[in-house]
Design brief:
- By secondary structure, this protein is an alpha/beta fold.
- It has one domain: 3-Layer(aba) Sandwich (Rossmann fold).
- The strands form 3 sheets. The protein has an 8-stranded mixed β-sheet with strand order 5-4-6-7-3-10-11-12, with helices on both faces.
- 35% of the residues are buried.
């Protein structure tokens, strides 16, 4: 029989935590250092920009491996890296344009391997939900960040939807604005990723005004 813990014992467990800076502090607040983060949204709404911006904050805490399957090393990806000055992160931010379970296992098993791993996108990995669970269980000391296509307002595909439900931090990206919809929500619960694009889509860059039933409550 597994050991049970009292409420006091549960509260005494020391969790490794991260408090991202910049716009992400007000969007997500303090979060677990490990576990699953899930970004999703429709094409052209700013998912990659949101994730790279988030990675900029993670670089202060450890190494980030960005698996850029969808955009590779394209001009679009270069522009996103440039926009957020990711070159300033040095070796803390690494990008690869391929994925295999074997290659990832080798990278994660290294003593100075990445602590934060981004899959862009989940659909391009062709990962099954059981494979995701196995990966997460084997590397409980890592943070896995998935970027997903959307069908309407939900992730595209059964496996992606299952990963979203399992994730502790869920971030919907729409109109260049990120909305925190999971277990971690900061003071504002949202962040503007790109001001000009935000104004074009929402008609304002006042974060307090970017909130509507049709865009948030139906997720």
């Amino acid at each position: 029989m597994n050991k049970s813990l009292s409420a006091k014992q549960v509260l005494s467990i020391q969790r490794n935590r991260i408090l991202p800076g910049g716009i992400w502090e007000e969007c997500v607040g303090e979060i677990d250092r490990h576990g699953t983060v899930f970004f999703w949204g429709n094409s052209g709404n700013g998912k990659t920009s949101a994730v790279v911006s988030f990675c900029k904050e993670l670089c202060a805490y450890g190494r980030v491996l960005y698996i850029s399957l969808e955009e590779g090393f394209s001009l679009s990806m270069q522009n996103t890296i440039r926009r957020f000055s990711m070159q300033d992160c040095g070796s803390q931010f690494q990008v690869i344009d391929h994925y295999s379970a074997e290659d990832l296992e080798e990278r994660l098993s290294k003593q100075r391997g990445p602590e934060f791993i981004v899959f862009d996108s989940f659909q391009y990995t062709q990962m099954r939900y059981a494979e995701y669970i196995s990966l997460k269980e084997r590397y409980r000391n890592k943070m896995f960040i998935f970027v997903s296509h959307a069908e309407g307002r939900q992730p595209a595909g059964r496996a992606a939807r299952s990963v979203k439900y399992d994730a502790g931090l869920k971030i919907w990206v729409e109109g260049k604005v990120a909305f925190s919809l999971g277990r971690f929500i900061g003071n504002k619960g949202k962040a503007i990723i790109w001001k000009e694009g935000c104004i074009e889509y929402w008609g304002t860059d006042n974060i307090e005004d970017i909130k509507s039933e049709k865009k948030e409550n139906k997720l």
